[in-house]
Amino acid sequence: MDNQITRRDFLNGIALPVAGGALSLSPLTAMAKQGILASDSSDSHYPPALTGMRGSHPGSFEVAHGLALGGAKWAKPQRRTDDEYDLVVVGGGLSGLAAAWYFRERAGGGAKILVLDNHDDFGGHAKRNEFDVDGHTLIGYGGSQSIDSPADYSRPAKRLLRALAVDAERFYGYFDEGFFARFGLNSGVYFPPSAFAPTGTAKVLLDVLNPFQVGATTLAEQEQAIRRYPLSEQSKIALVELVRGDLSFMPEASVRVRSAALREMPAEAFFKNVVGLADDGVTAFADAPRLLMGYSADVMSAWELLEYGLLGERGVALLYTGSAKVSKAFARELAEESEPYIFHFPDGNATIARLLARSLVPGAAPGRSMEDIVQARFDYGKLDAAANQTRIRLNSTVVNVEHVPGNAAVDLTYVRQGAAERVRGKHAILACYNKMIPHICPEVGQDQAAVKALNYAEKTPITYVNIALRNWRALARSGFARVYAPESFLTVLSMDFPVSMGGYGFTAAPEQPALLQGFHVSSLKAPGMNPREQAHLGRRLLLNTSFADFEREIREHLDAFWGGAGLDVNRDIAAITVNRWPHGYAYEYLDLWDPDWDRGAAPHLVGRRQRGRISIANSDSEALAYVNGAIDAAHRAVREQLGAGATVKA
Description:
Blueprint: H1 7-13, H2 27-34, E1 52-55, H3 62-70, E2 85-90, H4 94-107, E3 113-116, E4 128-133, E5 136-141, H5 155-163, H6 171-174, H7 179-182, E6 186-190, E7 204-206, H8 219-228, H9 233-244, H10 255-263, H11 267-275, H12 279-286, H13 290-293, H14 302-307, H15 312-321, H16 328-337, H17 350-360, E8 390-393, E9 397-403, E10 410-416, E11 419-430, H18 437-440, H19 442-445, H20 448-454, E12 460-469, H21 473-478, E13 480-484, E14 492-495, E15 514-521, H22 531-543, H23 547-562, H24 569-572, E16 573-585, H25 603-607, E17 614-616, H26 627-642
Helix pairs in contact: 2-3, 4-17, 4-26, 8-9
């Protein structure tokens, strides 16, 4: 649990004023009682256009931290804020919005639904960032990135996407797969001299350490780049053998036997004993998984490294055939069985949240298609209008959820503008973080097994940074559109996905403005440390990292990567938005650290058990940090509340 964070740790990281006259309150409680907000609630308020510190922004977490860490309490108001609802959802992320959608589908269009969220914007991690740079509109994502493998989605999830008019096939036309090759752009790697043996001026070199290449390269080009790496001769020889495919592991064994051996082998041991890297080579590889997994390779098994594609086709071939040689037949079979990673809206999965909100609150945004939502401007003043059957109420942090006597309904107390309000629902779905549930729901908090289960997982802290550039001439001159930097504050800096749709055009020339995405993962690397401990300590580090810290690091990274090609951070940076998520990716069980649970005994299954008119829906409850996990959780929770056989009326 996060109660290991001391008040001094918290206050050092969040330097906010304490309301005067808060007698005998702890600092956390006083800040929570004050209800500090980062934004107003006027009709003109438009969160996607805000820059600076976003994501878990100031004003969104103080009440929750006061409750969980500072012992803050709020008396249950005698009177309800408004009428009784058929469903009240705690959390307006993808799970919460999908739960409202599924509930309306089953209960009918006349159902009254209220969605409460502690942020000033809906969507949770599916966050949208907008910029106006010299007359050009730039749209980026501040969290949930893309629809991954939509063909593998469950039937209910596919049904929801169809109802929202999401057609993945259209992305084959919207995603410009030839963009980077057309401009001669590739993926680079930067070895910071502080972590690797300095060899003159540090430069960005061709990246062969991970498969996320933005352009095609030849084997000769890869070998030439390796020879320039500031690594030991042993590591260079091993890397050359790897890119040539001259690597094998248990080639005579079955896939089952080979997989079992790789599941028990730490990734670092695989790098040393199978690939043949020296320590510096392992260090160079170690951070490649951070963007995908939220951790470095030090906590991963060799199987996870290969199965998740972190060594590209060669690694997948090694896992399934025992050889890193990629035959034409294997490459063809792999291509047929997998989908490309191109299903990306300009604002990432914020579009799915926006499509859900537009469906739930007619009139909040114009349009009917997945194309016209791209540039649609939401009227935030209409989200909570009294005339709505479904209302989305922002800046509202739930602090108590409990059944009324007789269990005929659920009362929920939430804090808005520093004051406690109460609402009642015939059903409640908790689509918030698992670890908050014992604090806000006494019926769960009194169940030791449930509390232990809900507290088992640690969300991985991660930050998505959007940097609006006035032009990208320096990137074009350098030949690198993406840079991986091991042992650095920003693990990756990359140009956005080349997607044009709905009248929105991706940057067409180096003279035009463009977005760079940066990724900071604060999970603390330490030998032998449990990944959940790494995430917990990383959360503390992230909360103590200011926007000024991010801005300084961003400028230093940009200068190191592209300054030599002419990028001037003072001239070329137009704006920065830091999307901070101390509670980021949902925890997914790891081979080396989590047991093989008995059937039904895994923590996410124990913790999510229904309690009367209260169900749980979030990605934590699926132990899956992807959109389909959030959607499937919502569908399950609604089935629990209305029954699997309930008539779908919409």
